[in-house]
Write a structure and sequence with these properties.
It contains seven helices and nine strands; from the N terminus they run E-H-E-E-E-H-E-E-H-E-H-E-H-H-E-H. By secondary structure, the protein is of the alpha/beta class. A five-stranded parallel beta sheet has the order 2-7-1-8-9, sandwiched between helices. Helix 1 crosses helix 7 and helix 5 runs antiparallel to helix 6.
């Protein structure tokens, strides 16, 4: 059993299975609340404000940054993305577990802004297996694959910064390990 204050951060390289693990974890544990990110990008068709994202204009977003209103935030492709602090703290204050599935840089920011959170790094069984998974997706160009793999090498070097490392070799075993880690 892990002692933490309700905030769970899951990160790891692209292709490691974070998204799949998080989806299964949420399905089996409806008491866990997945944090909704804020963004300045334009909503895509069918996206709902407050459900898919909190859609903000750049001024609103920067105002929140200035007021330390995000646990973490970043700019990507000309838009801002961030995890609103208030909604996470509100859920935690009423005893809910809050889950963030974020990138390495965001996890590092959260460690500074909310150090009592529990951070889990999802790792592949090997770099070769990670490459195989990324290539098997069939969605990326060779250039994009190489970019993901180079980024993954950097991210894997950071795994010891985390409270726990879960190797996603077999999905069900990795999921069970995560559930044991966050059980309170």
């Amino acid at each position: 059993m892990t002692n933490y204050n309700g905030l769970i951060v899951i990160t790891g390289p692209s292709g490691v299975g974070k998204g799949t693990l998080v989806k299964k974890l949420l399905l089996e544990n409806p008491e866990i609340w997945l944090s909704i990110s804020a963004t300045t990008r334009t909503p895509r068709e069918g996206e709902i404000n407050g459900k898919d994202y909190f859609f903000l204009n750049k001024k609103e977003f920067i105002d929140l940054v200035d007021k330390e209103g995000f646990l973490e935030w970043a700019e990507f492709a000309g838009n801002f993305y961030g995890t609103p602090r208030a909604q996470a703290q509100e859920k935690i204050s009423v005893g809910k577990k809050v889950l963030l599935e974020i990138e390495l840089d965001g996890a590092r920011q959260v460690r500074k802004t909310f150090p009592e959170g529990f951070q889990i790094f999802i790792a592949p069984p090997s770099f070769e297996e990670l490459e195989k998974r990324i290539r098997t997706r069939g969605t990326d160009s060779e250039l994009a694959i190489q970019s993901r793999l180079n980024r993954a090498k950097e991210e894997l070097l950071a795994k010891n910064e985390f409270d726990a490392i879960v190797i996603n070799d077999q999905l069900d075993i990795a999921l069970l390990e995560i559930k044991k880690l966050i059980k309170s």
